[in-house]
Amino acid sequence: MQRRDPAGLAILLLVLVTAIPAAVLVLPNTASYVVPQAARDLGLSGGEAAGFVRATGLAMPALLLATPLAAVLARRRTPWGVLFGGLALLLGAQASAAYATSVPLTGLLRAVEGVGAGAVLPAALLLACERSERRLATGVWAAALTGSLLLATPAVLAVTPGPYGAYAAEWRVILHPYWWLGATALVGTGLLGVLRLRPPIGPGVPAPTRGERVLLLLPVAPAAGFAFLAVVTTYAWSPGGQLILAACAVTGLLGIALAGSRGAVTGSPLGYAVVMVAVGLLSMPVTGPLAGLLGGRGVPFGPFAVGAGCAALAVLTATATRRPAGRGAVMCGFGLVTAAMVALVAMGAGADRWELSGALGALGTGMGLALGTTLRPAGAGPALFGLTLCLPAVLGGHLVVGPLQVARVGAVTRTGGGTAQALAALTDAYRMWLVSACVIAVVLAVATAWTGRGRARRDAAVAAAPGSSGAALPTG
Q: Which positions, given as ranges, span the membrane (predicted)?
């Protein structure tokens, strides 16, 4: 019988619920709201403002590239060291915000924040997998990730200063929103390091094979492609060209997820990798533009908090219950996500708080149910593989909705339309994205069902083969 460690578990859960949001909150770029303040503080000309916004957006490309590399490093070394180093980088960059006195320094700090955040996410997942209470720990990790992705943009907008504040340097708040989350996680990680000096209690995570390390590096290629697109498409590329490239990139990402889901090293019984692509595409890329349409800095926070809370509750329910759910629960989750998209299309930006809460609650519940159900039987390798695909999918969704909005607003501007017409064009573009998201959700649901059934048939054939011990291929 294994010895229990309530103190270590409590500290780990504290680290998970602070480190994961601290990493995800690096992603939103609200620099466009503080351009007047930053221009006064840094002495920027009109042409340099675009470079400032571009520099503050370097966190996401850096995070995409760092995540798979950190996943391999955490598997080869100790996940505690990778987590502590990532949090130290993240917090150090945020603490240095006062020294962001130029556009290049601002971009450097944001890139360092992205690297730190990219190290935090896989290392925290591995620490959760090491626990004897694995279902609870990984459930909290997934709940924090899903809830943070849904809530990140409105949360950062809530602390973004106005464009014409009296204190010009106030714009630097966007470089360290909710810094106390990272500080709390760093202290908790230090305490975990002290506790790790004791003899290990649980069996830990099996050592990685060479094949697993190679496959974990596979998402580096699409991550690098997405990072490249995120930077170069800010240089006046046509919206049509951006959409074509984004569609090709998302299709390639889905292909990698399908291939990995059917493998013996990175596969899982219920198609976890495909679900993680869905979580990335349909979380922050849906709630982020919606927060902008609902008022930007004055966005109502409650409906988004409801969506994040429902997602967290659904994940924990799916991972912590005694009886594991099956493929039907995953399909039910995709159905709720699709219904939420349809509701958002029907309501538009004029919905009240209760209607938004219902739609976002359904979105969070469906996403959390699918994620928690597929994560439960997945091993450490498949869990890390899915994470390395989720984050490029977040950027992929933004690369689709962004050009749609730019194209519609550009058409209005060329015809001499005003602010009201531009807002209507943004709303129309967002509805087009939601319709596309409905189609994407259906396609991903079919892909998840296909990978799960195909793997089940193959594992059954292996178990029944002559000379087999009756065990199916390992899932991690």
A: 52-73, 80-101, 107-128, 140-158, 178-195, 215-237, 243-260, 272-295, 301-321, 328-350, 356-375, 382-401, 430-450
pLDDT tens digit sequence for 12-60: 999 999 999 999 999 999 888 888 888 888 887 767 788 888 889 899 9
**Residues 418 and 390 sit within 8 Å (Cβ to Cβ):** no
The CA-based angle 415-418-420, given to 5 degrees, is 125
Which runs of E-coded beta strand occur in 225-374?
A: none
CA 166 to CA 256: how far, in whole Å? 50
Three-class DSSP category at 25: coil
Q: Which pTM value belongs to this model?
A: 0.89
CB 50 within 8 A of CB 174: no
Amino acid letter at 197? L
Distance CA 330, CA 203 (A): 29
Kindly state whether residues 254 and 398 are assigned to the same domain: yes
Domain count, the chain: 2
- Return the percent helix, strand and coil in the chain, to nearest 5: 80, 0, 20
Q: Domain range spanning residue 196?
A: 1-205
